[in-house]
Amino acid sequence: MSATAPRYHRVFVSPHPDDAVFSAGGLIALSARAGMRVAVVTVFSGGPDEEVRAREDRAAIAGLGAERVDLGLPDVVARRPGARRPPSLLAVDRALIAEVTSRLAGLGDEVVGPLGVANHADHQAVFAACAALPGRVAFYEDVPYALAPGESARRLADLRAGAVLPRSLGERLALSRWWLAQPALRAVAPLPLLPLAAWQAASAVPPSLVGPLPLSEERHDVGAAMSDKLAAIAAYESQWPMFFATLDGFAGALSAHADRLGGAPFVERLFVR
Questions:
Q1: Is the torsion defined by CA of 256, 261, 262, 266 positive or negative?
Q2: What's the rounded Cα separation, in Å, for the pair 26 and 60?
Q3: CA dist., res. 38 & res. 33, Å (int)
Q4: Over the stretch 228-269, which tens digit does the pLDDT of each residue have?
Q5: What is d(CA 175, CA 155) in angstroms, rounded to the nearest whole number?
């Protein structure tokens, strides 16, 4: 961004079209309602179906009252043709992290990026780029991956330790069952290989890119903005059906996650550095 680029009160950073809205759409809407100038920065927008996904992204973000900033970088599949499963999806280029950090610098008073619950290289790269920024930086739970059993807690434990901790067999089995239920997995693996693909996804180990990182938790009741958030999620017609059969199912999974946390019916958590 140039020195004359607009400065926002709050910047939500999305690895791909949909990530920030799925994860923090309620906070995006509430921030805009509060009179903040809000941007959603989509980092890796170059890849398969990019025109469709850009159109969906523009509609969803506008519906939440925010502005879309597109960095236009190619996603991992475009950078590495054929990269559909570990280890190709996990390797992160540190020069790419530095570029994203540079592009985000000075764009907003507060940056809200992904926690990196997903092992995906693009999520990990954007997490590391945001963590390198000065000032107040917060991290949202990457939905839908954060809805998998124990995944947010596992990610937070890794960040506290500054290392990727080994998963227990029980953790891998639970996560493997979660992946088996996802239409997204069936889109990339033939039926006989689904159990193996689910096990690979559950056993994948992301890189450790940041040293010990103490984070404080904030919980935000976003019930007042859930209708806006669900409308924005619906705009991603090419994406949400990869994880949920219906939008009601998506809403139910978000509510169940909040219920496990013991909070309001719809809660979005931020983890603040």
A1: negative
A2: 12
A3: 10
A4: 999 999 999 999 999 999 999 999 999 999 998 887 889 999
A5: 13
- The answer to whether residues 20 and 12 touch, using CB atoms and an 8 Å cutoff, is yes
Q: In Å, how far are 47, 144, 231 from 240, measured between CA atoms?
A: 17, 9, 12
Q: Token pair for residue 245?
A: 């059969």
Residue type, 139: F
Residue found by looking up tokens 């193996």 in the block: 196
From residue 191, alpha-carbon distances to 63, 197, 207 in Å are 38, 10, 29
Q: Judge whether residue 85 has pLDDT over 60.
A: no
Amino acid identity, position 45: S
Q: Which domains does the chain have, with CATH numbers?
A: 8-164+207-272 (3.40.50.10320), 165-204 (no CATH)
